[in-house]
UniProtKB/TrEMBL annotation:
It comes from Kibdelosporangium philippinense. This is YbaB/EbfC DNA-binding family protein.
Amino acid sequence: MTDELAVQFAQMQKYTATLHSLMTAAQSHAPRQSAGADKSGAVRITLGPDGLPASFRVDNDWDRKITPAAFGGAVMEAFQVAINDRMETWTRALAEDGWRDRVDQVKGPATATEGRIPAAFRKPVEEVNPRPIGDIAEDMFKAFDTVDALAAVPKSDGASGTDRTGKITISLSSSGLTSCTVDEHWAARQTAAQLMNALSQALTAAKEDLSRKSQKPQPMSGVDRLFAEAMALLHDPRRLAD
């Protein structure tokens, strides 16, 4: 390995460590709790530190504020308000910590100054076994280019649960509530307490389903995977040789 290549990979090592540190710092500033209500005030949701619903509150006069057919939509609206509150709080915390400034420092003009994006991250290099280092570099660059995109719209990964009656179904992804379906004819006969109890049962079942799915063996993904892969290459020079 040439001296020039050694310098570039030393830069890459520092760059990957910085990226990992920034992502970890961002996660550490996530709000411990957030809340939101639908515009009618019929439904209120509190989110936990993971961004998933932790509890529901239904107003005693909910059926005077919304129709039974609109109940599921009110739950989703309350969740969206809570997510917005979570992200606003998160953004303020990151700003106060100077996190964005640190991101901009590393994402600045790609000059040959310490702390800037190393050359290996600006263009691919020759392929090497077992995996082309250029691919790793490109993936890292893409990850850093979207380092502040921490609030992607939740996508369903199949986790769902129902209450004991089967009339309310909640679906979750690892990042939030993705749907809430309610039998409107059944809902019309329920009190606020009964609806809260049913929502709690469905949420518990959905979280259990999500937990089971997350325990299945999965390949390392995201920044952690890229960081580990880059470190493995950097610590084994033989892999970097042609």
